[in-house]
Structures are given as structure tokens and as C-alpha cells.
Structure to design on (518 residues):
């Protein structure tokens, strides 16, 4: 339980509030690995606070992804207190490696964890809008908090004392649902322009609004994103896509002039009207398609493909006098190339680039299942791979919802799903058996139809009782069958073949029933 909330009055003087009406925060929420680090620092005479986004997440009853500790110890003093550490940066952050401990707290971390410990510090000017020109270590926690980006990330908590340090109104902004810069917004974004994207990402992850002065400064400083590496922009973009509200985040990014630094091709779809099957322009359709993928909690590959799937439409739009409507022939091919380039610019991995651009390339696979053949379905499976065929189906579902239609899976799509499953299923065949024709030949049987009759007879038995599909049983049973006359063996073999065909038909009916298309 928080015993005190330490804040500042209007003159900047620190004072203590009763935490009776404050948000709840309990020491038990801090993992054992983290309290081991803070406890070791405090036992050595130093201050130690859990700080930043993890405190915010605890107050929101969310499980923190990362745990950060700040202290008045220097990097050398921190390293002297722990057996396994590393220190490879210019900002004083020491990685403390905690091994072989069992996480018992509510927000537990893995048995081998790295807790980042950073000294209190003051930072000099940011000449490149990316990193400070100089860093000076401090003895005051206030110095550390005032350099942080947003009020909701500028709180610190001491589990040993039960104190929550909130000097910039973070609790108030959490209650109001605001993302607000610490101090003067222009200064915060001039220091590190990536904070502009981070504000959008946090608002999407928490479903918060951006405070008006902070938002205005983001718009004014947007051009500073040119100085930020593509890798850092990519990482924030991924977190935006993986949030619960990516659609709103990208709309806000466009409004503030940020989206051009992430995915400029998306903005080409603004105001580009589509044909009668669509209720929205290309831009909004792409974002609604993405949002449905987020609503379904589908993986990043589907979300990336969703937001880019129709990016090729503006370049391929043509008016058809015959149809009296717009056409977009080849937008899937053009869109795949554009997607590939955008993802390459953002330094995504080659594997991600290939998989996402491939999904965009084949997202128009859907056709009338009344006329499409299983061989055509198999070609689609081959094009995207068995491991991603259902990603393609899910992309198509998102595409449909993105048009403004209410139903995810109409009959035609369910029929196609059934055909995909039918095309991908392992066929019922003698190849399932733990014995083959070569082994029967080794047992002294001559090549001829008797081998096929034996295999079909064995298959019938295995379909009836799969536990019989063992080397020992099948070899012994084969020896018995080979003693039969051609007439008797053929009768048993034909009966087995009929059993196989009936089993296949039943399996297909089960698949069709699963998708309500029988």
C-alpha cells in the first residue's frame, strides 16, 4: 500500500499527501528480482526507486514489460554491488543480471532477468534531437524526474518505504487519461524527437488523449523526426500496430504530420474514392482493416499486411465506362512492391518483409468457391505457405470488415475456408501405414496386384483401430494375408479400398460441417 504520495506545490516545494485517496500500489506488485536490486542498493546506503513506465503500469493495474531502477549510486558503485553486470553505454545505465530466482510477485519476471539501473542524471543540450551532448550524474531524484518525457512516466516508487514520488501530476493525468509532457513540451521534443512518436504510441496502448499543449508541440516539432534513425521509428511503429487502438494512432499521426516519416505511401490513399463495394476512401479502409486485426488480437504479420494491403490502389485506379465505376486492376502486385519498399526503408527483417509483401500480393485470392477448383486452392496454399494460409484468410476477413460490411464470414468465405482445410488435410492413403510395398517384397512376395490388396486390407484395419499401426502388428498380419488365395485377398483388399473412400468422404463432410457449408 502507498503510505505517502510525495508531490510539489505551485511554488515547487515538495510536500507529502495522505495516500488514502490515491491509486493503490502494493510492494507485493514488485517482483522479487527487482526488490533484490533495490534492497541491495539501499542496504549499501544508497537511494533506490522503481521508476518510469513500470510505475505507471502498476497504477493502471497492467503488468509492466520492463523494470527500471534509478539511484544516486554511480555506475562503478552499482557494479561493485552485484556479481553479474554489464555497462556499455554513455548514459550510466548498468544492466544487473539476476539468475536462478523464482518470481513470486504479481508482476513476475523470468528466472534469468536483467534489471536496468540508472544513476540520477542531468543532461546537456540535444544538438541532434536524438541524444544529449553530455550527461552529469546527480544526487537528487528530482533532477532525474525532470528530464523524463511525460508526467505519467515521471513517477518513482519505493517499495521499502511505501512512498510514491509524483512531482509532475502523473497520478492526476492517469486519472484524466492524458499524455502530457513534463515541463515545456517544445523542449522535451527538441531533446529527443522520437518522443513525438512515443506519445502517439502510449496514447494508443493506454487509450489516452494527448494534452493540447503537448499535441501542438508535437505538430510543431514533427520535422525533427527526419533526424531519427529508421530502426527507432520502426520499433515505435510496431508497438503502435500491436496496440489496441492503431487506427486512431495513425489518424492522429497523419493529423500531426508524423505519418509521412513512418509510411508515407499510406497517405496517398487519402480522398481516393473506391468502387461501390466500399464505404470509405483507400486510407480509411486500410486503417479499418488494421483495426479489425487489432480487435481480433491477430499477430504483427497480419496487422502489417492489413495496413498495407490496398496501398497500391491509388497508383492503379482507373475509371471504367463499361462498369461506370473505378477499377484497381493489379493493385495487389503494385501494393506488394510498395509494401516491400516501405518495410525495407524501416529496416524490418528480410523474413518479415518477404512474408508481409507476400500476403499483400495474394490478398485477392478470394473467388467464387462454386467454380474454383481444389487445385487452384492448393496453388494459393503453395504461394503463401501452409504456415501462413490462415493469416491470409484472416487478412481477407479484416479486408471485408474494413469495407464497412458487418459480417466477418459470409457463406462464400466459409466455403473457401472449408476448401483450404480440405486441400491441406493429409489424405487417407496406404502411405499412412508403418509398412510399405518394399517391405512386403522383402518378405518374399512378388511384384503384382497382391501387394496393393494387402496394403488396402491393412489400411482398413488401421482405420478401424489406429493402435494397430505398428511395425510388429503389420508385419505379422501381412504374413497371414499373404497365405490367402488371390480371390480371397482381392476381396479383402477391395473392401479395404471402399472403407478408405468412405472414410475420406466422412472426413470432408466433417470439414464442411465445421464451416456450416454442408
Amino acid at each position: 500500500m502507498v503510505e505517502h504520495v510525495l508531490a510539489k506545490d505551485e511554488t515547487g516545494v515538495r510536500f507529502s499527501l495522505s495516500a488514502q485517496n490515491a491509486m493503490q500500489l502494493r510492494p507485493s506488485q514488485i517482483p522479487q528480482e527487482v526488490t533484490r536490486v533495490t534492497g541491495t542498493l539501499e542496504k549499501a546506503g544508497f537511494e533506490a526507486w522503481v521508476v518510469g513506465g513500470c510505475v505507471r503500469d502498476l497504477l493502471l493495474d497492467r503488468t509492466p514489460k520492463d523494470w527500471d531502477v534509478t539511484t544516486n549510486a554511480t555506475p562503478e558503485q552499482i557494479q561493485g554491488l552485484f556479481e553479474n553486470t554489464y555497462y556499455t553505454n554513455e548514459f550510466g545505465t548498468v544492466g544487473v543480471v539476476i539468475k536462478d530466482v523464482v518470481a513470486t510477485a504479481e508482476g513476475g519476471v523470468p528466472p534469468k532477468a536483467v534489471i536496468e539501473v540508472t544513476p540520477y542524471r542531468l543532461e546537456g543540450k540535444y544538438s541532434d534531437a536524438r541524444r544529449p551532448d553530455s550527461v552529469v550524474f546527480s544526487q537528487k531524484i528530482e533532477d532525474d524526474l525532470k528530464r523524463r518525457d511525460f508526467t505519467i512516466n515521471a513517477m518513482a516508487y519505493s517499495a521499502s518505504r511505501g512512498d510514491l514520488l509524483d512531482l509532475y501530476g502523473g497520478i492526476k493525468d492517469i486519472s484524466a487519461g492524458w499524455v502530457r509532457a513534463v515541463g515545456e513540451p517544445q523542449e522535451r521534443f527538441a531533446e529527443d524527437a522520437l518522443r513525438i512518436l512515443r506519445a502517439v504510441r502510449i496514447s494508443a496502448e493506454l487509450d489516452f488523449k494527448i494534452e493540447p499543449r503537448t499535441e501542438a508541440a508535437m505538430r510543431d516539432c514533427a520535422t525533427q523526426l527526419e533526424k531519427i534513425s529508421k530502426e527507432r521509428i520502426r520499433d515505435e511503429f510496431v508497438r503502435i500496430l500491436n496496440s489496441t487502438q492503431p487506427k486512431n494512432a495513425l489518424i492522429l499521426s497523419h493529423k500531426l504530420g508524423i505519418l509521412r516519416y513512418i509510411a508515407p505511401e499510406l497517405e496517398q490513399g487519402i480522398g481516393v474514392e473506391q468502387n461501390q463495394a466500399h464505404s470509405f476512401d483507400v486510407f480509411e479502409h486500410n486503417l479499418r482493416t488494421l483495426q479489425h486485426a487489432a480487435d481480433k488480437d491477430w499477430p504483427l504479420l497480419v496487422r502489417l499486411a492489413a495496413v498495407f494491403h490496398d496501398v497500391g490502389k491509388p497508383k492503379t485506379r482507373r475509371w471504367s465506362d463499361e462498369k461506370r465505376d473505378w477499377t484497381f486492376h493489379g493493385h495487389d502486385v503494385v501494393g506488394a512492391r510498395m509494401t516491400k519498399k516501405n518495410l525495407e526503408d524501416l529496416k524490418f527483417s528480410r523474413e518479415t518483409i518477404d512474408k508481409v509483401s507476400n500476403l499483400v500480393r495474394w490478398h485477392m485470392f478470394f473467388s467464387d468457391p462454386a467454380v474454383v477448383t481444389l487445385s487452384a486452392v492448393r496453388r494459393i496454399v503453395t504461394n503463401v505457405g501452409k504456415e501462413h494460409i490462415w493469416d491470409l484468410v484472416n487478412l481477407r476477413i479484416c479486408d471485408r470488415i474494413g469495407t464497412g460490411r458487418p459480417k466477418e464470414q459470409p457463406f462464400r468465405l466459409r466455403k473457401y475456408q472449408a476448401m483450404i482445410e480440405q486441400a491441406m488435410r493429409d489424405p487417407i492413403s496406404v502411405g499412412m501405414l508403418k509398412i510399405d510395398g518394399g517391405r512386403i517384397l522383402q518378405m518374399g512376395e512378388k511384384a503384382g496386384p497382391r501387394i496393393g490388396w494387402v496394403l488396402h486390407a491393412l489400411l482398413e484395419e488401421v482405420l478401424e483401430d489406429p493402435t494397430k499401426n505398428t511395425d510388429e502388428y503389420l508385419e505379422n498380419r501381412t504374413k497371414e494375408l499373404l497365405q490367402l488365395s488371390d480371390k480371397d485377398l482381392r476381396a479383402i483388399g477391395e473392401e479395404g479400398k471402399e472403407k478408405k473412400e468412405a472414410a475420406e468422404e466422412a472426413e470432408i463432410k466433417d470439414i464442411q460441417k465445421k464451416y456450416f457449408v454442408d
In short: The chain has four domains: 4-176, 183-262, 283-424, 430-514. Residues 54 and 64 are 5 Å apart (CA to CA).
